[in-house]
Batch of 2 targets.
Target 1
Amino acid sequence: MNMIARDVLAGNIAQLVFDRPGSSANIFDRQTLSELERQIDSVCADNPRGLIFSSAKKSIFVAGADLHSLAEMDERELREYIEQGQRVFDRISSLPFPTVAAIHGACVGGGYELCLACDYRIATQDRATKIGLPEVKLGIIPAWGGSTRLPRLIGLPKALDVILNGKILAAKPANKRGMVDELAPREYLIQAAVAAIERKASHPPAKRLVPGMILRPILAGKLEKETRGHYPAVFAALDVVTRAPGSSVSKSLALERQHVLKLAATSACRNLVSLALRQDKAKKRPAGDTKKIERAAVIGAGVMGSSIAQWLSARGLQVVLRDIDASRVAAGMKNAAKLYDQAVKRHIMTSREARDGMSRIIPAAAPVPLKRTDLVIEAVLEKLDLKKKIFAELDSQTESDAVLATNTSALSISEIAAATKNPSRVVGIHFFNPVHKMQLVEAVVGSATAPEVRDAAIAFVQRIGKLPLVVKDSPGFLVNRVLLPYLIEAGHYFENGATIQDIDEAMLDFGMPMGPLRLIDEVGVDVAADVADEIAGAFAQRLRKPAVLKQMIEAQLLGRKNGHGFYTYRNGRAGKVNSDVMQFQTGKSAAALTRQQLQRRMVLLMVNEAARCVEEGIVDGADDADFGMVMGTGFAPFRGGPLAFADSEGLPRLVEEMRKLEESDGERFAPCELLKSMAAREQTFYEKRRTDLGN
Ligand code: NAD
């Protein structure tokens, strides 16, 4: 099986074309690296005028290392794999003739490290072209020469920004930073590469190299603050990148190897690689042969509806955006236009693409019929009666085979579906806020949802570039159900005298992207209160809504959206703790809890609820529960999710701790049956291998 085709162009210019058989992607597994070594031997034997690297795939140049084998390799195999990649790319960098990377499509990780070993890089300005080094997001560093060569190419500050943040950029900003030397239309890519070889084009090395020794301590302090010490890869990257300009390539490559082998053995790396594989699985989850969705309608042009309409129209769908009057529809259209503007500013699309996308949204200020609509997504207020009324009307407004979906956060899909004549065509398609940033979408299967409707929902979510998670209909589904006990616990601790800083910092220390009170502000205190009503109402024996939410709504402290919540906000940015909220702090019982105690309690509640969701079959196993929580809430990704975290702590120990808290603090800490029975048998959610290595 050949992964690389060799060609000779006019004027004795060699071309190696990556084209992995039977796949839409190219990756650097061991076999491809070996073939690349052999192909370079053959190219050299022909003594060409130059060599062009390109790809035959529609949207991928080379997507990087092979994550599956990375997850399986032992230390010796990994060492050989790293050495092999370094050796091949080093060889490319010292070939006696000009080398040019002709990049179209995703060119990330190892794919871009190959380009860095070339003399010159040309990229298409296509939306599919994305360039960068995301390794730190997998808990490792670029170790096929990327950490060594990028600072030499573009200078230390810019290289640090790309590598430490694991950035992936569109072609234009990559070109601006010097990561690629030239942009070309796709049709002329190879022609431009030939021209570059003919004029022996090469990128001048970065002019003035800022001494790494000066930058290192400043950045180390900043990174320590940002990562709270949870991401060892960024410190390793900082070490190699700042030393690179002052040392020889071979020394720097040796340092890359040394760090990457150590990092690959950490639980952080294992969890992050598993997460990347799980994302891939969600993208490719087979959904059967389903009805293709071309035309959609979104009912409700508020925060969610308008953002969903924008996302769908940007992916080529025609979307009717309906609300109750012209001013609300206009506000929704304005929000969609704003999202398009932002996408253009970030080079995610051209202004022409944005204009075309916007023109695919059809505003409707009345309950127009929705004939020829394949999918309706309802996103009106979170009120069951209103939703039922809308679904009852959809019977006569839509064709009988249209899929009817609701974006409800926590209401029962089955109850909403019961309002229609044919509940089998109703499904939940639950997007998260902000729609353009959150990749996860819960596909909620109601008691009457037909399998082909569930499959159509999964295929639709995949088609619009989101990651589906199939969940059973139950209050809050997975993500909100697990999140809610944690958020209301934070509310209780606040009411009872714990400081806002201690509560939020405790969870930032754990690795959450923001603290729970800050998150309530972000979601909106009123929205959080609605969801809390629904979920705490359904599980009233253990969940009690804190009074502070209602008090804050009455005092018009609604969170970030109106500038006042647990924090005050200026231009949308969180500032100081809001002193107006302190009047609602009436108790003292939580005042003496340390950050460590607060953290432990809040985390245990999430572990317990996630285990319950597995126990009740809301999700299809621990893997789905963890994936949902990491993708839907940013649950400390390096910990792998609440149940992987539970494994790493040991279930018997956690269950024991919960029992003690149950006695001292109440029933909400009582471990669920699944945790108790697994702890009694010393079982784990995952095979041992995943968590047996400490950081
Ligand atoms: P929102 O208040 O911003 O928007 C609701 C819109 O529905 C309003 O514009 C309103 O005029 C419109 N509406 C009301 N009755 C209507 C009718 N009969 N026909 C057409 N439009 C009507 O609310 P939102 O935050 O966008 O939430 C919408 C849904 O999405 C809710 O079910 C909510 O639970 C869910 N959700 C919200 C979030 C979030 O963070 N905001 C996240 C996920 C899901």
Note: Residues 299-305, 322-324, 328, 379-382, 386, 390, 407-409, 431-433, 523, 527 surround nicotinamide-adenine-dinucleotide (CB under 6 Å).
Target 2
Amino acid sequence: MAGTPRFDMKHTSRTEIRIAEHVSTALTEQSPIVALESTVIAHGLPQPINLETALACEAAVRQQGATPATIGIIVGVPTIGLNEDEVKLFAARQAPDGRSIEKVGLNNLASVMARGAWGATTVAASLKIAHAAGIRVFSTGGIGGVHRGAAESFDISADLTALGNTPLICVCAGGKAILDLPKTVEHLETLGVPILGYRTDEFAAFYSRSSGLPVDAKIDTAEEAAAIAQLHWRIGGTTAVLVCVPIPAEFEIAHAEVEIAIDKAMSAAAQQGIRGKALTPFLLSELEKLTSGKTLEANRALLVNNASIAADIAVKFRKC
Ligand code: PSU
Ligand code: MN
């Protein structure tokens, strides 16, 4: 129909996912795989560190003996296992046809596919796509959650929705510090998502190692994470299992310093009317300026560390 957005039935009927050869081989051989997201590449980190970090995460996974599978949507096709050229396009934030690469959650996943558009997948969308292919372990930086001021804005990340109904192990450095972490932890409890603290009894707070919030269990090894996840699913759990890994100590930023920067970044967001999907990328980039790049270095360090631990868990999971 003239005047309406183009809706090509070829796209709407094409529901299959493209799985790169190295990933499909690993799936067939039942060897360990770690899924990785692409929103952090296209919207979470600035250039050029986004590309370097994405490749470093993949290398960290390989070093632990697992196969990395970075997920993104290419011309409407959810693709598992982006190759280096594809990762470069996500890092450049632009499709070859000049279109921008959209941030994809659960609400717009199907429409991005139907439009044949390019999409960077959040934790939520990545979990869904990874699960559809039978991947059991996923790694990110910090999950999305209940935003500060959610009582007014109702802004609660669909990451929580997906964690509540997708059975993967999700390795993260806790919730992003810009969130209301106590409410995020409460929400995870309501959803029935087990929270495991990797060598800590506190929920990790992204840039800081501690939050004062409890976890459901402290684990000391990757084997324990794998074993608890297996038990959770065998006893009827249908949710993700969250493994919270504190940021490596040498990159930690003091809680008080982060809080001051977050207050400033949130005021700037309010002043400029930034809301919804744009909020998280905006706050992360404001924090980088306000801390002279410290948060960026921290974000990179925790992403690579998480990828490495996720790979270790994926290896142990196969042996459970
Ligand atoms: N972790 C990071 N940086 C990021 C994100 C996670 O270290 O940019 C992304 C993830 O893709 C996550 C998303 O799913 O932010 C959450 O966005 P929102 O709060 O709008 O749901
Ligand atoms: Mn949101």
Note: The first strand starts at residue 18 and ends at 19.
